């Protein structure tokens, strides 16, 4: 199992803070550094100094790191037009030497759209319709052979004689991640477009059910390419009960709730929970780290957890 660090900068983090965490994650041999793609805080935090843009952040990290993989959980389809987004991701992939992974979702947080004047389709159906067309466009642009042009005629997006440039460094493209627990459309889109399917913040049992639906969709599609299955969980690990309680308090969470709904407890407890996810087929785990000032947290997991699940 590969362990990846996942951050939520909209809750309050500067680029310099993210750079510090990404460099620490790389030095500690974590597999990847991921961030959310949000423009507005959630819950009872001040969110200072304010939001940072996901792809501008990753472009900076691409030049400041050398090994660790970089990506989003999840870039919102509502934030950007698909053509320019394909250009941005391809460019950051080249800037990183081919280390980008493209997590992509339909978008859901209406308040951040209102706060920054971003159009938000009124119905979930329209959001998913636009999202599906964006997947077609972005992957189609990357797949178009050099020297050929790309055309697309959808209900929401139309491209004529697109040069389909630049190309990402990774061939045939950066890995595409699709996540969520939708019962029908999400598994179908994952089977058609994704290299990795991710279930965020669900129980082992519910994650297993979601994996099963996507495996069924993959089989029904006739797809032969492998699918990676992964999950995301909030992290709160401590050397003893007192340290676990201190870290839970720092992020405003209850220890018992975290043990039920996340990866919480001593290293041994965290390893046991990770083993349960491995047992249902999770190959990668995204560790949601909420206190970005606590680098000792990462050091503890790297030393006491990662060797037991590698």
TrEMBL record:
Residues 6-247 form the Luciferase-like domain. Keywords: Flavoprotein, FMN, Monooxygenase, Oxidoreductase. It comes from the Bacteria. InterPro entries: F420_OxRdatse_Rv1855c_pred, Luciferase-like_dom, Luciferase-like_sf, SsuD_RutA_monooxygenase. Pfam families: Bac_luciferase. NCBIfam families: F420_Rv1855c. This is LLM class F420-dependent oxidoreductase. It comes from Nocardiopsis suaedae.
């Amino acid at each position: 199992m590969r362990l990846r660090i996942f951050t939520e900068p909209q809750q309050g983090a500067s680029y310099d803070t993210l750079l510090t965490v990404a460099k620490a994650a790389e030095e500690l041999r974590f597999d990847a550094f991921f961030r959310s793609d949000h423009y507005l805080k959630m819950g009872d935090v001040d969110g200072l100094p304010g939001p940072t843009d996901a792809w501008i952040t990753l472009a900076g990290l691409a030049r400041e790191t050398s090994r660790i993989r970089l990506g989003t959980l999840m870039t919102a389809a509502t934030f950007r037009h698909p053509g320019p987004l394909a250009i941005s991701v391809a460019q950051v992939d080249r800037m990183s030497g081919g280390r980008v992974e493209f997590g992509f979702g339909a978008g859901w947080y209406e308040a951040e759209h209102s706060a920054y004047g971003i159009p938000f389709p009124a119905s979930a159906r329209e959001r998913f319709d636009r999202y599906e067309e964006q997947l077609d466009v972005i992957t189609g642009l990357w797949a178009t052979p050099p020297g050929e042009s790309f055309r697309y005629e959808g209900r929401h997006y139309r491209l004529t004689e697109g040069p389909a440039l630049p190309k990402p460094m990774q061939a045939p493209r950066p890995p595409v991640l699709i996540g969520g627990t939708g019962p029908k459309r999400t598994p179908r889109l994952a089977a058609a477009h994704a290299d990795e399917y991710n279930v965020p913040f669900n129980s082992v049992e519910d994650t297993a059910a979601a994996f099963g639906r996507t495996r069924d969709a993959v089989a029904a599609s006739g797809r032969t390419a492998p699918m990676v299955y992964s999950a995301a969980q909030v992290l709160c690990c401590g050397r003893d009960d007192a340290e676990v309680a201190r870290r839970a308090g720092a992020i405003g969470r209850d220890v018992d709730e975290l043990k039920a709904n996340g990866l919480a407890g001593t290293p041994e407890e965290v390893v046991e929970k990770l083993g349960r996810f491995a047992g249902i087929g999770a190959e990668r785990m995204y560790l949601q780290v909420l206190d970005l000032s606590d680098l000792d947290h990462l050091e503890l997991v790297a030393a006491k957890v990662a060797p037991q699940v590698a």
